[in-house]
């Protein structure tokens, strides 16, 4: 099957031109002006933006967490991602303390295989680093194509690793050609503040926010960066939210050590005033919490300076009934919010259309950099001869409203209910196949493939 996408404005991280794209099978075989080729199918993209399929390297699908499971399955989550122009996601396999990495991987594969609608890959979250785990790192990198290893410096008593484990893991991961990533907040300080607030009877969602002040993230980000520099391990901070943490990443750069970092769409657009809405604030209970308006300004600056390379979602949806688990105690509210479907349209509308970032920067942080950092480039993350034909055809003028009534995520509220958005995903191709067209999904579960990734580096 061949497809010709004609007359679109083709935008990559470093180019922008009116061109045609010729696709044969799953890959792009020619790009140029007025291509003289015969195709089985033609798509007229005049007036449209044409850019590489989005990559969201931070999602949690059907994740066992805080006594429940995140509500999007591999089927519903990856389908919602496609509706929103994201063709590849990277989820986190969570090792259970006392068990092997391989056991956790088998568990995640049982939920993903045959169910994903869009392409996906895995990070491995190491929650118990010991001699047995150490011996599995090479196997993950060489055999499974899992080259990034996530750590939690918080969630004490559940997922958190201490610094001894962190340094040991970094040494081994560096040796095997991988990268260590971190949820960088100070778990002990947070644990203390949560207990303090609860003992004072302060149980509302607002106290989730007040239990994780900026200093908890700034301190842990700095500590993580220092350990990365000491070990020489490529390092990446997930869901960075605030000025203090951004400064820690910048300081590493001043010492000529590069720590890569992502923020998430919610930290760019939403702020902590949402926690003042009594229990409704539970919709935005996530870790780290939303911050201040001044932090939003810093994060946009970090993107434009290249200190932040990726805008992800940390998509971790819970039904309202699940959020109610914490109605009398903020520490029992499952942490996370839905955004997998909204990321690209929000980033375009609030970023590009409002003049905060350029179109090339948009492509870079929504797709290209994640592919480069996590070992998928140039197969994914760009429009280039030989790349997978993962392509979004986007109407920059179409205005619409976000709502739980119309979204495709398996969650009964939206973090962005009623938001007016400029620009809409019209058609999406995944490996040459049209998967979304004018609001309809054309493929079913099993369409998504697991993407094995190459070794990684922090030089991008
Ligand atoms: O609140 C969040 N972020 N939930 C998902 C788990 C994590 O920390 O990424
Ligand atoms: Zn996290
Ligand atoms: Zn997460």
Q: What's a concise summary of this model?
A:
The protein is of the alpha/beta class.
Key features of this structure:
alpha/beta; binds zinc ion; 460 residues; binds N-(aminocarbonyl)-beta-alanine; 8-stranded parallel beta sheet; single chain; 2 domains; 32% helix; TIM Barrel
Describe the fold and architecture.
By secondary structure, this protein is α/β, with parallel strands linked by helices. It starts with a strand and ends in a 19-residue tail after the last strand. The chain has two domains: 2-51 and 383-398 and 422-441, Roll (Urease, subunit C, domain 1), CATH 2.30.40.10; 54-373, TIM Barrel (Alpha-Beta Barrel), CATH 3.20.20. Helix content is 32%, strand content 24%. Helix 3 packs parallel to helix 4 (163-176) and helix 7 (214-231) packs parallel to helix 8. The longest helix is centred in the middle third of the chain and has 18 residues, at 214-231. The chain contains 13 helices and 19 strands. The site of N-(aminocarbonyl)-beta-alanine has 8 residues, from loops.
What's the SSE blueprint?
Blueprint lengths: L1 E10 L4 E9 L2 E6 L8 E4 L4 E4 L1 E6 L4 E2 L2 E2 L4 H10 L2 E9 L6 H12 L6 E7 L5 H14 L3 E5 L10 H14 L2 E5 L3 H13 L6 H5 L3 H18 L3 E3 L5 H12 L4 E6 H5 L23 H13 L4 E3 L7 H4 L19 H10 L6 H15 L17 E11 L18 E11 L2 E5 L2 E2 L19
Parallel strand pairs: 1-4, 1-5, 6-9, 9-10, 10-11, 11-12, 12-13, 13-14, 14-15
Antiparallel strand pairs: 1-2, 2-3, 5-16, 7-8, 16-17, 17-18, 18-19
Helix pairs in contact: 3-4, 7-8
The structure holds N-(aminocarbonyl)-beta-alanine and zinc ion (2 copies).
One zinc ion binds next to loops.
């Amino acid at each position: 099957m061949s497809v010709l996408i004609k007359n679109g404005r083709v935008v990559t991280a470093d180019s922008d031109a009116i061109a045609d794209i010729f696709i044969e099978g799953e890959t792009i075989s020619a790009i140029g002006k007025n291509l003289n080729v015969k195709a089985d199918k033609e798509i007229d993209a005049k007036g449209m933006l044409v850019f590489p399929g989005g990559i969201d390297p931070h999602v949690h699908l059907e994740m066992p967490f805080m006594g429940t499971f995140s509500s999007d399955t591999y089927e519903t989550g990856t389908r919602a991602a496609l509706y929103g122009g994201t063709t590849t996601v990277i989820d986190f396999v969570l090792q259970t303390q006392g068990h092997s990495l391989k056991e956790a991987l088998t568990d995640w594969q049982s939920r993903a295989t045959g169910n994903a609608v869009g392409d996906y890959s895995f990070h491995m979250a190491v929650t118990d680093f010991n001699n047995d785990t150490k011996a599995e790192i090479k196997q993950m990198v060489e055999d499974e194509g899992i080259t990034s290893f996530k750590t939690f410096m918080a969630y004490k008593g559940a997922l958190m690793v201490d610094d001894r484990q962190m340094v040991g893991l970094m040494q081994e991961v560096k040796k095997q050609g991988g990268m260590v990533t971190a949820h960088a907040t100070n778990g002990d300080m947070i644990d203390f503040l949560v207990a303090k607030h609860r003992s004072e009877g302060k149980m509302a969602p607002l106290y989730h926010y007040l239990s994780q002040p900026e200093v908890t993230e700034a301190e842990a980000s700095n500590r993580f960066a220092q350990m990365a520099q000491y070990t020489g391990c490529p390092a990446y901070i997930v869901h960075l939210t605030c000025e203090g943490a951004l400064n820690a990443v910048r300081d590493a750069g001043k010492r000529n050590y590069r720590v890569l970092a992502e923020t998430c769409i919610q930290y760019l657009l939403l702020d902590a005033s949402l926690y003042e809405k009594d229990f409704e604030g539970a919709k935005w209970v996530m870790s780290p919490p939303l911050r201040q308006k001044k932090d939003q300004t810093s994060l946009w600056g970090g993107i434009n300076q290249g200190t932040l390379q990726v805008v992800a979602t940390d998509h971790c949806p819970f039904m309202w009934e699940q959020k109610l688990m914490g109605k009398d105690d903020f520490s029992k509210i499952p942490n996370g919010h839905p955004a997998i479907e909204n990321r690209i349209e929000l980033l375009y509308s609030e970023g590009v259309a409002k003049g905060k970032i350029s179109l090339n920067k948009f492509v870079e942080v929504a797709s290209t950099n994640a592919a480069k950092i996590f070992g998928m480039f140039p197969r994914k993350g760009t429009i280039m001869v030989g790349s997978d034909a993962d392509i979004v055809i986007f109407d920059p003028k179409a205005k619409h409203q976000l709502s739980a009534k119309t979204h495709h995520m398996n969650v009964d509220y939206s973090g962005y209910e009623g938001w007016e958005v400029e620009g809409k995903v019209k058609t999406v191709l995944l490996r040459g196949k049209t998967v979304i067209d004018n609001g309809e999904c054309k493929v079913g579960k099993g369409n998504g493939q697991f993407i094995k990734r190459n070794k990684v580096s922090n030089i991008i």
